[in-house]
Amino acid sequence: MQIIYNQPTDVEQIQIYKTRKDFKGDYTVVVFPFLKASKKGPEQTATEIGNYLLSSLHEVEGFNVVKGFLNLNLSKAFWVSFLNQIMPEAQFGLKAPGTSGKTVMVEYSSPNTNKPLHLGHIRNNLLGYAVSEILKANGHLVIKANLVNDRGIHICKSMLAWQKWGKGATPESTGLKGDKLVGDFYVKFDQEYKKEIAQLESKGLTNEEAKEQAPIIQEAREMLRKWEAGNKEINELWFTMNHWVYQGFDVTYKNLGVDFDKIYYESETYKLGKSLVLDGLKNGVLIQQPDSSVWADLTGEGLDQKILLRSDGTSVYMTQDLGTAHQRFQEYHINDLIYVVGNEQNYHFQVLKLVLKKLGFDWSENIQHLSYGMVELPEGKMKSREGTVVDADDLIVEMIQTARETSQELGKLEGLSKEEAEKVFQMVGLGALKYFILKVDPKKTMLFNPKESIDFNGNTGPFIQYTHARIQSIIRKAKDTGIEYSKLQDFIKPADKEIELIKLIYTYPEVIAEAGANYSPAFVANYIYELAKEFNQYYHDFSIMKEPNREVQIFRLALSEKVAAILKSGALLLGIHVPERM
Fold this sequence. Notes:
- The protein has helices spanning about 1-5, 35-40, 40-55, 75-85, 120-135, 155-165, 170-175, 180-200, 205-215, 215-230, 230-255, 265-270, 270-280, 315-330, 345-360, 390-410, 420-440, 450-455, 460-480, 495-505, 510-520, 520-540, 550-575, and strands at about 15-20, 25-30, 60-65, 70-75, 105, 140-150, 260-265, 285-290, 295, 305-310, 335-340, 365-370, 375, 445.
- The protein is α/β, with parallel strands linked by helices.
- The strands form four sheets. A five-stranded parallel sheet has the order 7-6-5-11-12, with helices on both faces. It has a four-stranded antiparallel sheet with strand order 1-2-4-3.
- Helix 20 packs antiparallel against helix 22 and helix 22 runs antiparallel to helix 23 (about 550-575).
């Protein structure tokens, strides 16, 4: 504005966006903020700015005006120059962790120790891991945390069932993973509990009365009381059965490809919040009822009253979360704490933030709940107590087997050794599972169909993996024939399809930033699918190895190689590995 209208430019007024697909252009400048300086109408102002940019910048080769919007066309030379510039950048689009100056903790998984991980846990783990990797790529230091729910009535139910019907069963004696063994006893408890409820109802009790008076649930509650009182025998059994579960979890986490920097255990943290609550009571921000229970009054915030300490002084789950959150901010000096937890806990995290704010912790505003939808199957919802969940380990095995069968049917892995083929089957099976789950907006409830996820031609992980392998095959052929390239010639005039591919590459850093801002791996997933789809259309229409012009051939090889690099980079952010050969 300084040059055209002799007026100072306010940088914050400049608004530039990618041009919408239904208009011609690469980038759109909103000219309305400049009308005061130009003292002219929007179309004339846009035309004057466009003419100036066209005459001053060789990167701009044309423009058009639509009302108050200036659509700029960038030159082919600009796009070739950009590709040249990023060719040596192995980490294009990714920022080094720590460069943002921000430390973020992401809590995910958070399983109960009474059952193996299931399909719902898979979505949680894959989301938490991918969000962590994406936040790292945005320059943040990230701490991946897991809070294991290893105390409470749920584990006592499994323990009691093992005492009654286990006959000394162990993972070694049964050949079962520890988490599966313990989960079987959780299901057994529920079966026996339902029998006792039915018997009591037949004697005239209501369903609620029967649930309360059933001998087996009373025994489980007594076991919990003994555990909290430090009973040696109960604590030893609790320790043994929990460690069976941990060993089982570790196998599943390894197979799934997720990890953690810090693991918390509820048995070690559940009392942390009690002192905070007592301080809040002392300071008058919490209230005590006649029975000595302590509550937070949130009616002023549009909610209800929330119990924080029971009348006997024991803490509730919310109390533990208060203390754990405080410990984490003190321990790691984090800027943000992100909880990856299903949307059925929306109220819980709303209350958590409000109570922490009442207690005087300003950092409560930096707690984020990544609320995701449930995973359903074509058959409907899963129920842990009834043993109708999709076991995570079984699903992983099924996905790898489906990948094996599909690949063999299509002849995708001919020429590979048995060992190489098995590695690809694992990559494809897990890639299909991860991509199918992560391509969906986390907030949405999703329907998981294993067979649909393994399709080499659809919006799937295997399609992206196959595209990467196809490009690697081209690169190997080029190297075998002695073709080398490091710098592209500026005089190359790419076809429109090639320019579109470069434009897609150009937006990769923006996609990573958007995925990080929204805690949504779906942005990355759908981006790499679009990139793979565009490349396959390009490969269908343009020759690479048979191109007679060597400089054009080199350009196409360089473009293809960069597409492959970004497919690999984006897939790794999702925890997906891409094979070199398929």
